[in-house]
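Lesson 9: reading folded outputs for more than one chain in a single document. The general rule is that every protein is listed as its sequence immediately followed by its structure tokens, and records are never interleaved. Here is the first one.
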Amino acid sequence: MYENSIIGIEPANLMKEAQKLKDEGYRIVQICANKVNGFELSYSFDREHDMKTLRMIIAEEDEVMSISHIFFPAFLYENEMKDLFGIKITNLVLDFNGNLYKLAQKTPWNPQN
């Protein structure tokens, strides 16, 4: 039977929880941002069809530590969140500084930013 669970976390626990999943053999599947009152960030991981999603809500001005030191491919998702939403991601392994995409408008999914 395949499992799919969403685990609510505090932003301060993201690194610890991501490392725990890495140690348990999970791989990064996707990172998704959603504009709510602030941002909802969902980090999904898989191990043998067992999907776990770490989910947190942050304020627009909050900074989030990159998990790219734990899961290298996360740098793409995290740069995308910076480009499209203006989310402040710190300590990226590869930081495109808001230039991963060529955009007609800065942070198009959060235009007041």
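And here is the second record, again sequence then tokens.
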Amino acid sequence: MQSSFSGRAAIWIGVYLFVVLAPLFALLLGDHPPARDFWTEFADAIAYAGLAIMGLQFGLTARFRFITQPWGEDVIYYFHRQLTWVALALVLAHPAILIWVRPARIAALNVFAAGWRVKYGNFSVYALAALTALSYGRKRIGLSYEAWHATHILLALLAIGYGLLHAVAFGFYLQSPLKSGLWVALGAVWIGLFVYTRLVRPCFLLRRPYRIEEARPERGDSVTLTLRADGHDGLRFAPGQFAWLSTVTPFQITGHPFSFASSAERKDGRIELTIRNLGDFTATLPSMPIGRRVWLDGPYGAFTMDDADDLPVLIAGGIGVTPMMSMLRTMADRGDRRRVLLIYANRNWDDVTFREELEALGKRLDLVVETVLEEPPPGWTGERGRISVDTIERCVPAPFDARCYFICGPEPMMDAAEAALAGLGVPISRYHSERYSFA
């Protein structure tokens, strides 16, 4: 399984590099203008590469399952965020090198005095810089996720649109109709990806709504939404996967990712999502009226343990236990007798979501639950503090590198768990993390 994953991953990396670099090398085909000095040519080359990376960002967030499946949606979004820095570095290096070659070009930075061909490039850089700054600073300035998402999309469209206008208007390498047509066609493809994501796919979701059937309070200031398929059979998913929830319309700009909590063996068209109140969109969910129509875009994610060896180790923090519950409920419904260990970290005993059900599942499964509490009650004999190397050494039977680990929870807890596993010599191929911080 690991070699198959590595093979698919290598193929997709190769495809990505080809799609980024092919338009650049296409500019060298056929007739081209007289060569200039190396640094000027290099500055133009990296600008074209930066523009191609910017356009392909729409493809990375288009949620094509055949692309995301080898990696998981969280890895794709992490890659997307890091590539924004790469694109910004390339487009900033372009004018910097040109000014270094010919210092008089610094006058082009005056957006009021520059010609329109230069202004297009300036606007593209400004939009990309603002997009990057807001992505990494929105929490510090108190910008809501919904407002950030709308702004992010607008700035991305401006950055790519002005970048294309700049490339075509200058046209040093795009003088032939074929080459200029190639880059205009690329722009059309990029915009097409955006239109597909925002208009075409929501049209399909519109025909497959769900209704809120129940909003059940859970421990840990959480609520379980039971959603019933309305006029269709519902979607099929693997335990551990998630969907994007839209509560107003499938065309709304911002969807919210939540793991499936119910068993994948459930065939009555009902799906459960268990969600903790984090003070934002999640605070509105308990008060949503029964019968309200909502939409699910999914399933997504590669956080599944169907092929895991005996004794998979589930490491959860807080509401990160939700995908683990889907795994355990599915195992119980399938009569799966694999040994499984759940290490479940919470602040206190009252915060342990699914506490009673986990005890009941222990009678249907070969399950051991190790609860870790930061603030344990008097007389507590279980694990204390936070998940660490010592926690794993006490809870997991050796050899540690022979187990398969699944980690989900708050980012600090996940970082600590991954560091602990690395400290115990567990190779990265043996643990799988699911992070829902897509912004």
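What the second record shows: The chain has a mean pLDDT of 87.
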